[in-house]
């Protein structure tokens, strides 16, 4: 039987077309060819995904079945420490970095959870996505809850906790896939705890799938053969897709109607231009209260003398008032950290203090940032809430850099324990922070330039500088001053 699909362009044609009349290969031609290559090697990508699923399952399940390592255990002689290093020291920080470099290529090509969810959806009930799942607040709520819960059970330190948090998320992804949609990724699009973060970071990527609406329209004229629909797993509105934040970069739509191709772009384009037409308060919440609030509190509390003082004062007050049950340490490991053999147990007070500290940090930092952004918007011109959401996007580089720095702190600690010289780590952190500050400032200036110019624009930049200083001070405490 003949396929209804019309011939699609091949990489050589695309490279030649992008090269113009002189037919020289160009960077754009190369990108388009990469997109087509991804489309044409779906089987290879699927095999790669299953390979990652196997490695992921092994690193997650095997350490949870072993005894906890002795203090003398090292990365190279203990599977548990090795898995801890791979997951939290390499996997997560570099997945975040990959979002900024390649968009959500990780999601579409390597993520084991997405692959399993899509596979389950192909076998499952195929129900439509319910309304509750479409709620826009999930990316923020799921991120905040997972981050706080992960701290309560010490997800970075203990394999059973990692299995519970990461494995639990994977099981949920499979169940959601099995129940909802026919072969799509409803979990990834709506419920994945890092979907919102990945969506924000991928806005900075220098590549995306560009849709040529005119070519799309032209492809509809005079066509009698139906064009085969694209199997876009995260359910993107292909024809009207403007940015890359929801796209998993799988390449399946490359060349579709001769109107979609992987393209290069300026790393400012999506934040400055595309976000100008959006007004998503949940994205703002995720940036200021999530990435720069909850995540900051979660990285801070183990180093913070304020946390210790707060907990000490609360404990003294409880003892003075003869209320002793909050000091009890018998909570199960899946609720609060409980590893007596390693002298690591949380009391109810520890858990309550941790949650309070993280939430207080989020509230103080997030509200401070929001005030600075609001001042910038107001100085630049008449107040519009949409403008506040737009300006908040300028903080994405600093927010992303912060999560990378926080996660890589564990990488540094583990490598130090191995005897690897890490004297350069603080200088590298300072360099990264400086770069992220400049990037945020660059974006902020470009956004403000849409509403103001001259001295007014320069004045409107001042509150943005204050917002950057606030975040820098928080990292200053964590890495230099405490
Ligand atoms: S829009 Fe959909 S099909 Fe196209 S690359 Fe992105 S995820 Fe894949």
Automatic annotation (TrEMBL):
<keyword id="KW-0472">Membrane</keyword>
<feature type="transmembrane region" description="Helical">
    <location>
        <begin position="430"/>
        <end position="448"/>
    </location>
</feature>
<feature type="transmembrane region" description="Helical">
    <location>
        <begin position="161"/>
        <end position="180"/>
    </location>
</feature>
<feature type="domain" description="4Fe-4S ferredoxin-type">
    <location>
        <begin position="170"/>
        <end position="204"/>
    </location>
</feature>
<keyword id="KW-1003">Cell membrane</keyword>
<protein>
    <submittedName>
        <fullName>4Fe-4S binding protein</fullName>
    </submittedName>
</protein>
<feature type="transmembrane region" description="Helical">
    <location>
        <begin position="86"/>
        <end position="111"/>
    </location>
</feature>
<feature type="transmembrane region" description="Helical">
    <location>
        <begin position="132"/>
        <end position="149"/>
    </location>
</feature>
<dbReference type="InterPro" id="IPR052378">
    <property type="entry name" value="NosR_regulator"/>
</dbReference>
<dbReference type="GO" id="GO:0005886">
    <property type="term" value="C:plasma membrane"/>
</dbReference>
<dbReference type="Pfam" id="PF12801">
    <property type="entry name" value="Fer4_5"/>
</dbReference>
<keyword id="KW-0812">Transmembrane</keyword>
<feature type="domain" description="4Fe-4S ferredoxin-type">
    <location>
        <begin position="86"/>
        <end position="123"/>
    </location>
</feature>
<feature type="transmembrane region" description="Helical">
    <location>
        <begin position="286"/>
        <end position="308"/>
    </location>
</feature>
<dbReference type="InterPro" id="IPR017896">
    <property type="entry name" value="4Fe4S_Fe-S-bd"/>
</dbReference>
<feature type="transmembrane region" description="Helical">
    <location>
        <begin position="47"/>
        <end position="66"/>
    </location>
</feature>
<feature type="transmembrane region" description="Helical">
    <location>
        <begin position="354"/>
        <end position="379"/>
    </location>
</feature>
<feature type="transmembrane region" description="Helical">
    <location>
        <begin position="391"/>
        <end position="410"/>
    </location>
</feature>
<feature type="transmembrane region" description="Helical">
    <location>
        <begin position="460"/>
        <end position="481"/>
    </location>
</feature>
<keyword id="KW-1133">Transmembrane helix</keyword>
